[in-house]
Design brief:
binds alpha-L-arabinofuranose; 6-stranded parallel beta sheet; 10 helices; 315 residues; alpha/beta; 6-stranded mixed beta sheet
Length: 315
């Protein structure tokens, strides 16, 4: 059994895990979103490697971007009496019931990468990940600077992440908040590309057909931006020149396109959450007090900065 006093509530956390192991090894059930992007692949690798390094027994499931699969996986971890559950919620809403089930079973939950909109924050121990609103703001601030002193209308198309997901909601609102100060910025089309390269390409093709003048593409991740680049090139336009491109993530493929001038600016979102997650899980199980929110530190990249960073880029 791996049990101790809870960090927040003072109740006994380990009872549910008591049937799982007698060797003192922590068992974590991790319900991943899917494998939709280069970011997600790097995130999965980080979690799996960090679990091995921390001596944590990891049960891993891939929800293929479907909330019902994630809920099933969490219920199965509860039934297996794991010591702790961690997951990256595919969308923000609809988690209260299953989180309550975990709480009733006295299994602590850690949110990684994406938030839930549950009002009851006692349903999870902490949330570790990026500030997606800030990421959207950084994208908007770059755009405002880029077009400073120019009066002409700037037509923007937006490729949103998965509908209802925290990064799609927040990156959209953060960006909109910044550009609304100047009416020359017009978002003329905004649609989901589901965070995938294939959908990014498909939606960009439609954007190009429907809109003769597109100045800027804001894509909520690198993969959709990379798919859109294929569509832009197929339409006989030069990505990064005829259409300026801003993306989020800074995975190797995105950084390579940035260094080549096909993307103009990338806002970093780090997927390397594994070591911090394992550390927090150990603390929760040991009954230590942990912060309710753990923010990931991130930067931004211009083409020059991408060239300098690429040789050491791990993902
Ligand atoms: O939740 C993080 C987002 O999910 C990444 O920006 C995107 O690439 C991924 O699919």
């Amino acid at each position: 059994m791996v049990g101790a006093l809870s960090a927040c509530g003072g109740e006994k956390e380990g009872d549910a895990g008591s049937g799982a192991k007698d060797d003192g090894k922590i068992t974590m059930g991790f319900a991943q979103v899917g494998a939709e992007s280069g970011w997600r692949t790097a995130n999965t690798k980080s979690i799996q490697e960090a679990a091995t390094a921390a001596g944590i027994d990891l049960k891993f499931s891939d929800a293929q971007q479907k909330q019902e699969n994630q809920i099933k996986a969490i219920r199965s971890y509860i039934a297996q009496k794991v010591d702790i559950i961690a997951f990256s919620p595919v969308v923000e809403s609809g988690w209260d019931t299953v989180l309550k089930e975990a709480k009733d079973a006295k299994i602590p939950v850690i949110l990684t990468d994406r938030a839930v909109d549950s009002k009851d924050t006692s349903l999870y121990k902490t949330f570790i990940g990026s500030d997606f609103v800030l990421e959207g703001k950084k994208a908007g601030e770059w755009l405002v600077k880029e077009y400073q002193g120019k009066a002409d209308t700037v037509n923007i198309v937006e490729l949103q992440g998965t509908t209802g997901s925290a990064p799609a909601n927040d990156r959209k609102s953060g960006f909109a908040d910044v550009i609304k100060a100047d009416p020359k910025f017009k978002v003329i089309a905004s649609q989901t590309g589901d965070f995938t390269r294939a959908k990014g390409k498909e939606v960009m093709e439609a954007f190009l057909k429907a809109n003769p003048k597109i100045d800027v593409l804001y894509a909520h991740n690198d993969d959709m931006g990379l798919g859109a680049i294929e569509a832009i090139e197929a339409a006989g336009k030069k990505p990064g020149v005829d259409i300026k491109i801003i993306t989020v993530d800074a995975v190797k493929d995105g950084m390579t396109a940035l260094a080549a001038g096909k993307i103009n600016f990338i806002v970093e979102c780090s997927p390397l959450l594994g070591p911090q997650l394992m550390d927090l899980a150990k603390k929760v199980i040991a009954g230590e007090t942990i912060p309710q929110r753990v923010l990931t530190e991130e930067t931004t990249f211009t083409p020059e900065q991408a060239k300098a960073a690429l040789p050491d880029r791990k993902y």
